[in-house]
Design a protein that fits this description.
The protein is an alpha/beta fold. The protein has helices at about 15-25, 40-50, 60-70, 90-100, 170-190, 200-215, 225-250; strands spanning about 5-10, 30-35, 50-55, 75-80, 85, 105-115, 130-135, 140-145, 150-155, 155-160, 165-170.
Length: about 250
């Protein structure tokens, strides 16, 4: 049977860690964490659970994840965020994987369901979300783009069944704070790519984002949560194009 490392980057995650730790214990031979300056009980909780914890200044998502992966001693790495929690199905799937890993793949995506303002989203194109969370040590590296990090693999990818739970946003304010950062990063990436669209195009893209999520992908079937998911994504889209227009104009004065 292979050795599996459960790996996590953290900062002030004391509220999420008990649930996360309870979920990974049945599948992982070791737990490894990199903390980037927590001021709460994050490190204490991890160490009490038997995790190996390294302290390191924040250098960006991709670099932190690569540093974390290098610390792992398992044959395979299960890298989950603190708000991503294995469920019964994904736990069983990982145990079967450890007993008999499928040949030919160096990384596997798992499906997730998203908790959004008090409800699991089932429509709007949010379910299931497939993300690579399991990969063979030494066969993949994280690379950065302006908005999100992504995993580059030196081999084929596969999929494993079994849902895990993603507790995404605590509130609309939490969403807006994070989406503002993503919008600016996305605008910078578009500017670097030579995109010249501005607010008029932004209004069109925002309207399309809402229509796609809420109507075409049936987000209205998720009730109020589906409406907010579509509306806030439209707001993020508008903000991204508005920031692109500002960047093109340059500093005022």
């Amino acid at each position: 049977m292979i050795k599996l490392s459960a790996a996590i980057i953290v900062r002030n995650e004391e509220a999420n860690l008990p649930r996360w730790l309870a979920a990974v214990r049945p599948v992982a031979e070791e737990i490894v964490a990199v903390d980037s300056g927590s001021t709460d009980r994050t490190v204490e909780i991890l160490e009490q659970a038997g995790a190996r914890v390294a302290r390191r200044e924040w250098t960006g998502y991709a670099d932190q994840r690569n540093y974390l992966a290098d610390l792992c001693t398992g044959d395979w790495i299960l890298m989950l965020d603190a708000d991503e929690v294995l469920g019964p199905q994904s736990t069983e799937s990982l145990l079967r994987f450890k007993a008999a890993p499928p040949a030919g793949c160096v990384a596997f995506a798992l499906p997730s369901r998203v908790w959004y303002f008090g409800r699991w989203l089932r429509f709007g194109g949010f379910f299931p979300e497939w993300k690579v969370r399991l990969y063979k040590k030494g066969a993949a590296r994280w690379v950065s783009d302006e908005v999100h990090e992504r995993l580059q693999t030196a081999g084929a990818r596969g999929r494993l069944p079994g849902l895990y739970d993603h507790y995404s946003y605590d509130s609309k304010a939490d969403y807006r704070a994070r989406s503002a950062r993503y919008a600016l990063a996305g605008a910078r990436r578009m500017l670097a790519a030579g995109r010249r669209s501005g607010r008029v195009a932004g209004a069109w893209h925002a309207a399309w984002a809402f229509t796609y999520r809420y109507l075409i992908r049936l987000g209205f079937l998720d009730g109020k949560a589906g409406w907010w998911a579509a509306w806030l994504e439209a707001g993020y889209t508008w903000d991204k194009y508005a920031r692109l227009a500002d960047l093109r104009r340059g500093p005022k004065g």
